[in-house]
Amino acid sequence: MDVQALYQPFSLKSLTLKNRIVMAPMTRSFSPNGIPTADVAAYYVRRAGEVGLIISEGTVIDRLASSNDPDVPHFHGQQSLEGWKRVIDQVHAAGGTMAPQIWHVGVMRPHASGWMPPAPFEGPSGLVVPGEKTGTEMTDRDIGDTIAAFGRAAGEAKRLGFDAVEIHGAHGYLIDQFLWAGMNKRTDGWGGATLPERSRFAVEVVKAVRAAVGEDTVVILRLSQWKQQDFAVKLAKTPEEMEAWLTPLAEAGVDIFHCSQRRFWQPEFEGSDLNFAGWAKKLTGKATITVGSVGLSGEFIAAFQGESSHPSSLDELLRRFERGDFDLVAVGRAILSDPQWPTKIREGHSEQLRDFTRDALATLY
Ligand SMILES: Cc1cc2nc3c(=O)[nH]c(=O)nc-3n(C[C@H](O)[C@H](O)[C@H](O)COP(=O)(O)O)c2cc1C
Fold this sequence. Notes:
Layout: E1 10-12, E2 15-17, E3 21-23, H1 38-48, E4 53-60, H2 78-93, E5 98-103, E6 122-123, E7 127-129, E8 132-133, E9 136-137, H3 140-160, E10 164-168, H4 174-179, H5 195-198, H6 200-213, E11 218-224, H7 239-252, E12 256-260, H8 276-284, E13 287-291, H9 300-304, H10 315-323, E14 328-331, H11 333-337, H12 341-346
Parallel strand pairs: 3-4, 3-14, 4-5, 5-10, 6-9, 10-11, 11-12, 12-13, 13-14
Antiparallel strand pairs: 1-2, 7-8
The chain binds flavin mononucleotide.
GO molecular function: FMN binding; oxidoreductase activity
Protein name: 12-oxophytodienoate reductase
InterPro entries: Aldolase_TIM (IPR013785), OxRdtase_FMN_N (IPR001155), Oye-like (IPR045247)
C-alpha cells in the first residue's frame, strides 16, 4: 500500500503539520529535579525533521503530588520552563512542531527508588486500584486548584511558543481516575453513576485549558478505555455511551481526540471494525489520532517487561487511514528506538527498520 498518504500535510486552526505522523508522548525520566536538560532538547531535535507533530513526554502541572518520579519534567517553575523554552526553540529551529503533554498522575504506587512527592498522592477517592486506598481524597478546593494548574500549564505552553497542547486524560492517571467508576466513588458533583457525571472534572480541565490558550490554539485530549491498573476496563461499552462521554468534552474545547489503544487494529465495539479513533471521529466529527503498536509486532506494556518487537506491515493502518477513520497516527517505540523511522518508511527502506528492544528505554538517544 502507498505510505505517501501519511505524508500529506494537516492543518487545523493555527496548527500546520508537514505530515500525519505524531511522536507519541513517552516518559523518559531524564530531567533531574523536573528540569529538562540539553540532552532532552537534543533527543526531541533528532526527531523534529521528519515527525509531523512531537508530543512531549508527560510533564507535570503545579501540584505538590502531580508526579511520582523525581526525574519526570515539570511544566511549572522558572528553571523547568526555561528548559522547555530551550526545547521548543531548538525543535522549531530544526523544522519541528511540538505540543507538551500536561499531566497529573493521581494516586500511584511510590517510585521504585522510594522517592515520594512532597504531599500525599491525591485522587477522586484516594484509591490506587479499585478497593485499595493509599492516597488522599481530593477536596473541592484541591479539585479547583488542580483545574487551575492545568490551565496555567496550558497558558505557559502558549507563552513559550508550543504549537498545541495535549492533556493527559488516559491510562488510569488523575483525569482517568475521575472517569473510571472503579476509582471514583464520590457522592458529590465530581462523581456519579454515569460516565457523563464522572466526566465533569475532565470537562472543567478542558475548559480551563481552552480559556488559557484562546480559540485558535489546538487542544488535544488523550483518552483510553484501558487502564494501566486493569487492561479490561471499558469506560464506554456502547457507541451511545461513547457519544455521551465525548460530546461534552468536544463542546468544552477539545479539537483532537488522541485515542490510546495498545493495538490500534482492535475494534472498539462488536459489529464494526472501527477502532477507538474511528468511533471518536464518527461520533464527534472531531479530528482523531490513533496509536498502538504501529509498525511493531508486540505492544508496549510487554516491552517494559523485556519483550522485543519486530517491524511489521503498515497495510492495515493504511487501509483504515485511507478510509478516513482518523487524521493522524501516533508512533511510540518505533520512533523512540529510531529517530529515522519516518524517513525510512517514506522512502520505502523497510530493510533498514529496527527491532524494538528494552535497551532503548535506558538511553535518551
Ligand atoms: C517508554 C514509554 C513511556 C511512555 N510514557 C507515556 C506518557 O508519558 N504519556 C502517555 O500518554 N503515554 C505514554 N506511553 C504510551 C505511548 O504514548 C504509546 O501510547 C504506546 O507506547 C503505544 O505506542 P507504540 O506501540 O507505538 O509504542 C509511553 C510508552 C513508552 C514505551
